[in-house]
Amino acid sequence: MTQVSASTDSATVPVGVLPPDLGQTSPAVIKASQRVTPESTDEVRHITLEVMDPAFQYVEGQSIGVVVPGPHDFGNAYHLRRYSIANARSVPVGSGVNLDILVRRCFYVDEISGERYPGVASNFLCDAKPGQQITLTGPYLSPFRMPLDSRANILMIGTGTGIAPFRAFAQHIYERRGDWKGQVRLYYGGHSGLDLMYTNDEHTDLANYYDEKTFKAFRALGSRPLMTSSQALEQGLHDHAAEAWRLIKDTNTHVFISGLSKAAKVFCKVMAEQAGSEEAWLKVKEQMIEDSRWSELIYD
């Protein structure tokens, strides 16, 4: 399917033109847009939005939709793309509510023509300037639910921009609550330093939580040029499999997987090795699902 880059001249969809299938919409303003990757690599931006409605509410793990006004290919009046919210719920400031999203400027190759096209929403957002107004939908329900028990262990596994909801989790646990007693582990894989932008000392605020007694982040960087982020994650999980398995066996551990769909397959593969067989692992996993301690937020 062919897509073209969106114009940023018209940032908000005019009132009265919004298709009814969009559901509830909210106007928002780009407050800040910071590139978090070097100029020599793919562009990824940390974008702060202010929703112009103090009644707008969300919780960690939810996502919002960004509406890119058309016209687009095939006569579409708008293009909608969802992004995970990357910060903990915030108190309204002034007349609005702030939220963060992580956006990678994407391109794809048409399978038939072989031509490269820019992703509509990602290029729209990466080109947007502070002060520009845009239209949001949501927030949307999420399979991620933070446990209420502060003694619960949290095991987070992610690749790519799938780290966004985990940033919100860490903020909520250590900044907003401050009394978390359970063990918190983040396993994160990337095929290059680009994919570790939120887990290294140079570009991230996740480093703020490294000194917490309960928090540990295990970063895996691809050791070969063609190694994918999922392969790097598998490498990192193998290196720390015993730690993950120890937590899995604790009945008060909650698992959250975010990012590429291969991340879940990789995690299950490594845990099956720790369990002794795939059959034994599936029994453990099924019990966690039954206990509402297993959540996935994945994409292809």
Automatic annotation (TrEMBL):
Report the PROSITE patterns cross-referenced here. FAD_FR
Show where the FAD-binding FR-type domain sits: 23-146
What cofactor does this chain's UniProt record say it requires?
A: FAD
Keyword check for Hydrolase, yes or no.
no
Mind listing the UniProt keywords for this protein, alphabetically?
FAD, Flavoprotein, NADP, Oxidoreductase
SUPFAM superfamilies per the UniProt record, alphabetical: Ferredoxin reductase-like, C-terminal NADP-linked domain, Riboflavin synthase domain-like
* Gene Ontology MF annotations: oxidoreductase activity
One Pfam family of this chain: NAD_binding_1
Q: Does the keyword Nucleotide-binding apply?
A: no
What protein name applies here?
Answer: Oxidoreductase
Q: Which organism is it from?
A: Thiorhodococcus mannitoliphagus
